[in-house]
Amino acid sequence: MENTVFYPANTRGHANHGWLNAHHTFSFASYHNPQRMHFGVIRVLNDDIIAGGMGFGTHPHDNMEIITIPLEGDLAHKDSMGNAEVIRNGDIQVMSAGTGIAHSEFNANKDKSVNLFQIWLFPNKRNVTPRYDQMTLNIADRKNKLQQILSPNPDDEGVWIHQDAWFSMGTFEKDFSVNYGIKKSGNGVFAMVVKGDFTVNGQAMHARDGFGIWNVEEVSIKADSADAEILLMDVPMDI
């Protein structure tokens, strides 16, 4: 039997620190909601706006798969493995924290903000050697279709992580529809609307709404507005 959870954008946790305006779909930092601890292996889904020139100083992580998707602006990254990169809209970045990693994230521009999704997934292997990867994707390849941006397979499209998860993004014209087939039996899908309006398996969704669905084999997606953009996260439901 189909199971769902719906998290309207205005019910997310919110913390505005001035330099950082953050919305949390799941419990994070000072936002704690026992009903919103995770969706399957998705532990964190943060929607961060970082002011010009500001950011997160060096801080540690371990045993977590951390995915960053810039939506607007440029994010500068440095880490304890010696990586120093800038990621932009159209890029996806992944870190397997494994046995331990430290990194910093700063807005690369002084004169405009940067907006990003940062997503943490529980890994399916603990204490792996830390790793970093980023990739620039062709945004044109997600016009009226779902472009895979992440998978468990290093040889597959997009970046890869230590988890049986597949992420896809699409930008659709009004009234365009597509069906998404679940990649692995037992996985669920968490949909996050980046912009515009959608109907996902009958659920009306608007910008930054989140909708989780499991115990299904496919998910129907219909754009209800022009230039509507969505992120789908196909993930194991068992941690």
Explain this structure.
By secondary structure, this protein is an all-beta fold. The protein has 2 domains: 12-135, Jelly Rolls (Sandwich), CATH 2.60.120; 139-236, Jelly Rolls, CATH 2.60.120. It has no helices and 22 strands. Strands 1-20-17-22-15-13-14 form a 7-stranded mixed sheet, with no helix packed on it. It has a 7-stranded antiparallel sheet with strand order 2-3-4-11-6-9-12, with no helix packed on it. Strands 5-10-7-8 form a 4-stranded antiparallel sheet, with no helix packed on it. A hairpin with a 3-residue loop joins strand 2 (13-16) and strand 3. The protein is globular and about 45 Å long. It starts with a strand and ends with a strand. The model has no long low-confidence stretch (mean pLDDT 97).
Topology (SSEs and partners):
Elements: E1 3-7, E2 13-16, E3 20-24, E4 42-50, E5 55-61, E6 65-72, E7 74-79, E8 84-88, E9 91-96, E10 101-107, E11 114-121, E12 131-136, E13 147-151, E14 159-160, E15 166-172, E16 177-181, E17 187-195, E18 198-200, E19 203-205, E20 210-214, E21 218-223, E22 228-236
Architecture of the largest domain, according to CATH?
Sandwich
Query: Which fold name corresponds to the CATH topology of the largest domain?
Result: Jelly Rolls
Please name the fourth-level CATH homologous superfamily of the largest domain.
Answer: Jelly Rolls
The parts where pLDDT drops under 50 for at least 5 residues are none
Tally of separate helices: 0
End-to-end span in angstroms? 20 Å
Question: What is the domain tally?
Answer: 2
Strand order of the largest sheet: 1-20-17-22-15-13-14
CATH class of the largest domain: Mainly Beta
